[in-house]
Amino acid sequence: METRRIGIVMNGVTGRMGTNQHLARSITAIIKQGGVRVSPDLTLMPDPILTGRNANKLKALADQYGQEALGKPFKFSTDVAGVLAGKEGDYEVFFDASGTLQRAGFLEMACESSMIKAVYCEKPTATVSKEAVRLAKMVESAGKKNGVVQDKLWLSSFRKIAMLKELGFFGDILSVKGDFGYWVFTGMDQDQPAQRPSWNYREEDGGGMMIDMFCHWEYVISNLFGPIKSLVAYGNTDIPERRAEDGKPYKATADDSAYAMFLLEDGTMCQFNSSWCTRVRRDDLLTVHVDGTKGSAVAGLREVVTQSAANTPKPVWNPDIVQPIEFYDGWETVPNNIDYDNAFKIQWELFLRHVALDEPFRWSLMEGAKGVQLAELGMKSWKERKWVDVEPLA
């Protein structure tokens, strides 16, 4: 059997998402499982080098996950330009999980590198759609294969929703209601430290609920339910002051809650509430409720429950008596008939196959730009207090 090495420059993985989802649960996990076996004769094996600004953090990650995967540390470097110039060996994939405002500079460096053959990065790719489109066209013009992380498509729950839709369970889909978020501590109260980075709440640093989550809602909605025709949105900075990692209070300038109605081209209405200032009383941190003429489903991050037309109870409005129907009892859980892998890892394996075997990979940087466009239109709708249309990207 041939084992084909794929060198990957992993930039900015010292952050929470980069460490947990991309380094630990994706690349390290792929190496530990013996690579991506694409045929009885061929396995693709990632070979990462970690790059970033903080040598101590990089060394700690390289030691921990390299020992876990290989029994020896991964390579690391604070000289991104030097790595892209080939000073540390040959690497054909550049992956970026740095801050949104730094992404353009790193993608430009990757495009100038003759060593790099493919570019993969986190979302959002930019904070405005014009820049997101520019980056996508730049990478395409440089002849690089490319992709953007759209992880929620491979959550077990959304895969089950896609399966139910394919089976015709819903009949005609009437509406979709998404509820996302949880309480993110401000850091201002004793023994309640913030559990998300402070830059997420500063607009000047690329933070904000719309630019963060509308990028997700675009690809979730368009892939599961259909293209978005128009939207109306409202956002707010609910909590004006938080405490940063250095212990100092700072002014929150980004929206920490956002509410939107997305009208699809077929007339279906999708409503999504997103908030870092809500206390959870629902099945999961994200729930998506799909109503159809023949049945309904509610998806969390992993599980899905359904209620068919035949099993729908007949409520009667009477607020003067205790509700006689136990509504939760009328739902059935969709079984897990297969083992569902980590969503980020699944997309990484697909991208590696795309790089090595030229297999189709449609989640490109231009697809990622659509999410940035939706966030930008959400901000426009909020500021101008009106419905706005979603036009095709140039």
Walk me through this protein's architecture.
The structure is a single chain. This protein has 2 domains: 2-152 and 342-364, Rossmann fold (3-Layer(aba) Sandwich); 153-340 and 373-384, Dihydrodipicolinate Reductase, domain 2 (2-Layer Sandwich). The chain is built from 9 helices and 18 strands. The protein is globular and about 75 Å long. A 9-stranded mixed β-sheet has the order 17-16-15-14-8-13-12-9-18. With 394 residues, it is α/β, with parallel strands linked by helices. Helix 1 packs parallel to helix 2, helix 1 packs across helix 8 and helix 4 runs parallel beside helix 5. 42% of the residues are buried. The termini are far apart.
Judged by helices, strands and strand pairing, the structural class is: alpha/beta
| Low-pLDDT segments | none
By CATH, the topology of the largest domain is: Dihydrodipicolinate Reductase, domain 2
CATH superfamily membership of the largest domain: Dihydrodipicolinate Reductase, domain 2
Number of helices: 9
Number of domains: 2
| Shape by Cα distribution | globular
- For the terminal residues, how far apart are their CA atoms? 45 Å
Q: What is the percentage of strand-forming residues?
A: 25-35%
Strand order of the main beta sheet, please?
17-16-15-14-8-13-12-9-18
Mean pLDDT: 97
What's the SSE pattern?
A: EHEEHEHEHEHEHEHEEEEEEEEEHHE
CATH class of the largest domain: Alpha Beta
Give the number of DSSP strands. Answer: 18
Helical proportion, percent range: 25-40%
CATH architecture of the largest domain: 2-Layer Sandwich
Give the biggest beta sheet: 9 strands, mixed
What is the CA-atom radius of gyration, in angstroms? 22 Å
